[in-house]
C-alpha cells in the first residue's frame, strides 16, 4: 500500500442520500464511494470525509481521503472512480498528500453556502432541489446585521443539536467569514469557519430568516451566542439549500510531487 494518502475533492447531490456517513442499510455517499473503491482495489478501502453532511445536504467540494495501492496515481484513480460512481457523485480533483495528512483533522477551514429563493420561480422543479423557497419578504438590513455578529470566536451551543458533541466539547468555533450575498431571485448565505457543529449552519439560517421576516427581534443572534441551550433557537432551515463548498488545507499537506 502507498503510505501517502490521496485527497479526492468530491461533489454530490445529497437529495437521494441519507447523509455522508456509512450506514448498514440506507444509501450514503461514503457507502457508495467505498463500494467503488472496493471494486477497483479488491479490498476494503475506507473513504474518510472532512465532515459528515446530513441527509439532503449537497457538496461542491467535500474533502475525502483514501489510501490505495501504489499503482493508482491520483488521476488514474479519479477517472476510474468516476466511471463507476452513480450519477449523483463525481470526483472533481485528486491530489497526492503527505503521509501525515488527515482529511478531517488537517483541515483549517470549511466553507458552506446556503441558497434562499425569494421570487416565485424558486418553487420551480429546477431550483427547489437546491434552494429554500421563502415566500415572505426579507429585510436586507436585518440579514446583514445578524450575520455580522457571527464574525470571530463564539460558543455555538445554541446553534447545535443537543448531546451530539462530546460532553467536554467547548462548542466554540472561529468564524472567518459570514455574509448574505444578494443574487437574482434570492440570497446566498456564505460562512467559513475552522469547524462546524451538527446542524449549526441550518440553525443559523433559520434564525436569521426569522429575524429578517420580523418574527424575531434584531439582535437575536448576538443574544443566542451567549445562551447555554438551543431552547430559543429557530428550527433549522431545510437541508436541501445547504452545500459544503470547499475544505481548505495548509500547503504543507500537499506532497511535493502532487
From TrEMBL:
Active-site residue list: 54 (nucleophile)
GO molecular function, one term: RNA binding
Stored Gene3D superfamilies: Pseudouridine synthase I, catalytic domain, C-terminal subdomain, Pseudouridine synthase I, catalytic domain, N-terminal subdomain
Protein's UniProt keywords contain Cell wall biogenesis/degradation: no
Residues that coordinate or bind substrate: 112
Enzyme class, UniProt record, top EC level: isomerase
Record note on quaternary structure: Homodimer.
Family to which the UniProt record says this protein belongs: Belongs to the tRNA pseudouridine synthase TruA family.
Protein name in UniProt: tRNA pseudouridine synthase A
Amino acid at each position: 500500500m502507498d503510505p501517502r494518502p490521496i485527497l479526492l475533492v468530491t461533489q454530490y447531490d445529497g437529495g437521494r442520500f441519507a447523509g455522508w456517513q456509512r450506514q448498514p442499510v440506507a444509501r450514503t455517499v461514503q457507502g457508495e464511494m467505498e463500494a467503488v473503491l472496493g471494486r477497483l482495489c479488491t479490498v476494503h478501502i475506507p473513504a474518510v470525509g472532512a465532515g459528515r453532511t446530513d441527509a439532503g445536504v449537497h457538496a461542491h467540494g467535500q474533502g475525502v481521503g483514501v489510501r490505495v495501492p501504489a499503482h493508482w496515481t491520483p488521476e488514474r484513480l479519479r477517472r476510474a472512480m468516476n466511471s463507476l460512481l452513480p450519477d449523483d457523485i463525481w470526483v472533481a480533483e485528486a491530489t497526492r498528500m503527505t503521509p501525515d495528512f488527515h482529511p478531517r483533522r488537517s483541515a483549517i477551514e470549511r466553507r458552506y453556502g446556503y441558497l434562499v429563493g425569494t421570487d416565485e420561480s424558486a418553487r420551480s422543479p429546477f431550483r427547489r432541489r437546491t434552494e429554500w423557497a421563502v415566500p415572505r419578504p426579507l429585510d436586507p438590513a436585518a440579514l446583514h446585521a445578524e450575520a455580522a455578529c457571527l464574525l470571530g470566536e463564539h460558543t455555538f451551543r445554541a446553534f447545535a443539536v443537543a448531546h451530539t458533541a462530546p460532553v467536554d466539547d467547548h462548542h466554540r468555533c472561529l468564524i472567518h467569514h459570514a455574509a448574505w450575498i444578494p443574487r437574482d431571485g434570492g440570497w446566498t448565505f456564505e460562512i467559513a469557519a475552522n469547524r462546524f457543529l451538527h446542524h449549526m449552519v441550518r440553525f443559523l439560517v433559520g434564525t436569521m430568516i426569522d429575524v429578517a421576516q420580523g418574527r424575531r427581534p434584531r439582535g437575536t443572534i448576538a443574544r443566542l451566542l451567549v445562551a447555554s441551550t438551543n431552547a430559543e433557537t429557530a428550527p433549522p432551515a431545510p437541508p436541501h439549500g445547504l452545500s459544503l463548498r470547499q475544505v481548505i488545507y495548509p500547503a504543507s499537506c500537499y506532497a511535493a510531487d502532487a
